[in-house]
Amino acid sequence: MASVTAAVIGAGSQGRVHGLGLRAVPGVELVALADVDERTAEDLAGELGVPRTYRDYRELLVLERPEVVSVCTPPALHPEIVRAAAAAGVRAVHCEKPVALSYGEALEMTRVAADAGTQLTYNLQRRFEAVQRFAREAVAAGEIGEVVTIEGYCPNLFDWGTHILDLILFHRGDTAPEWVFGQLDVTLDRYVYGAFVETASVTQIGWADGVRAVVSTGREPHTPVLNLQNNLGLIIQGTRGRADIRGARCLIQRFGKDDLVHDSPFDTDPRTWDRGVDPAIVAATAEAVRDAVDSLRTGGKPALDAEHGLRGAELVFATYESSRSRRRVPLPLDRMDNALLSGRAQGYWSPTGELRSTY
Fold this sequence. Notes:
Number of helices: 10
Order of helices and strands: EHEHEHEHEHEHEHEEEEEEEEEHHEHE
Strand content: 25-35%
């Protein structure tokens, strides 16, 4: 197996997860890390046995010329790093989500990578979680009949919603939706990973076959949602049953038949997690990285191809646009900005108070 050199840009918590994932892939040599905080990079390099660290990722790209790069910085930096990596001849970029701060930037990242022949994937690693695979196989096999509606719940649309929206598309077999209708509450001046986000929201998504999905976001104490594990979950309603996916468990309830249950094989008690990181996330990210590297080697299409991240981002920004324009937004989305930011600048929303978080 030919050796592949790799580097991680951004040495925070997700950089550690990606580093662990890369280190677990046979034939991958993790050669360098970059972070503006030199101490953070050095600490992670020491843990993972990485020989060199850089404060400037551009210097890393020039001197190391890695074949694979994981981008684990805040989303505002994703476009410039993807551009720089593609220009430097990086063969594959595995980028964290959220994708970018606007739909136009998300489209540009995809175009730049494609023009350079760089394989671009986004870390929508929950597609690799056993509990989600179990649910998708059961739904696809008709265990709950024909899908009628899907309900999704999470703390915010921009970050957590990226996963929820992607999983809805995943369970729908990645069939493209036709439209989005959404509304935002922007009571708080709230930020996630440095990005301004809504206080709460509702998104309705429609497909040509009549299936509808609704995603609700919010977090206590301002907007409590369902009593789900970490306020995260999906409920897929069918004509002969339902799939209830909450945290680490999937319950398939079939009308007139016994239930099917799948529980995560990982410890779900955060008190036992290494540095507070969910081991299921580490394992799924390792699978995502492995798939990206395998696809690079074989020339096949990766499971987390950029088109999936782009389609999820389209739903986020279409929700923002729907709330700003007070209309149902047809897809594909034709507005390139971030309507949440543009609408705030135009006076549509006047948040008060401040709430910063990293989730």
